[in-house]
Amino acid sequence: MERRSFLKKASVAAGAGVLAACAGKTESTGAAGANPKLEWTLASSFPKNLDTIFGGAELFAKRVKELSSGQFIISVKAAGEIVAGTQVLDAVKNKTVQIGHTSSYYYFGQDATFAFDTAVPFGMTSRQHNAWMLHGGGQELMREFFKAHNVVNFMGGNTGTQMGGWFKKEIKSVEDLKGLKFRVGGFAGKVLSKLGVVPQQLPGDQVYPALEKGTIDGAEWVGPYDDEKLSFYKVAPHYYYPGWWEGGASLSFYVNSEEYEKLPELYKSIIAAASMEAHTDMQAKYDAKNPEAMANLMKNGTQLHPFPDDVMAASFKATQEVFAEESAKNPAFKKVFDQWIKFRYNEVQWFGIAEKSYTDFTTSNPWNP
Ligand code: CA
Predict the structure, then answer these.
(1) How are beta strands 99-102 and 38-44 bridged, if at all?
(2) pTM of the model
(3) How confident is the model at residue 34 (pLDDT cuts 50, 70, 90)?
(4) Distance, CA 91 to ligand 1 centroid (Å)?
(5) 165-245+300-345 is classed in which CATH architecture?
(6) 299 CA to centre of ligand 1 in angstroms
(7) H-helix or E-strand containing 151?
């Protein structure tokens, strides 16, 4: 009897706490409780046929709906449905939509600092980027930068280390890059320009037609799983690695800052939790699906090559020049870069010990099933 009476008291006390919390929320927001009905539109930078990167926004929206008991609905629109894939920043900034899902480096033309939110040439891997964002001060630095664009940013998936792309002709040395019209995402175009490449920033749905028509000579996208779907191997058989400009490309959810501030605390938490789930899920999906896609591509005549050593060395040198030039003229870039480069320096050395030796051994000893 004593135990039952204690449980009854405890439950009354907990119930009173919940009621008090609800009453406080109602008063402070003036809304209909902590769980108001809300409908948002999300503009994605990606085409629907890419279940990896477009799917990330769908998973996010599904989880937001579930966690809000069906009250917070986010309708996900593909690239081109509301705005073009590379216009998502402006759409969120100007409140054409409340939320977007995109790659920040698409906007490096407005400010190269955006690129740190996604990936920069010879930058960090997916895990190292997570470490920087979540426990290395990266998120604070990027949030401060995004304020001027009316955006609150959340991580929204990662592709892992990308492939270097598809070429119609073999790249045997750095000489073969001269005059090459190459579709490439983000800040890497600035580096490749120094090596004579003519970079083309095309959204995903426009890459294959350009490659097929021959208006471009090569194209990189992500890696085997997405690249197979986009059929690049049919028109450009030489597949190079690694994509040194994307050691791990992180995507982002952009929430308009005024719309974000209007949200009840519960919905702010739901956005944080759902975006983190979508973020984690995307990397797992790529890691799970890439091996089979790579095997299919090889069966279909793909010719796999590492970039020649002189291409890697020249690219690294050009990258360091671009970073120095950008730091000299852009204080926002310099502020992030100076902090980021110290973090990266420690990360790559640590990853060179246990992680590298373990991966080297398991790759050489794959343990045939
Ligand atoms: Ca890419």
Answers:
(1) parallel
(2) 0.89
(3) low
(4) 22
(5) 3-Layer(aba) Sandwich (3.40)
(6) 23
(7) strand 151-158
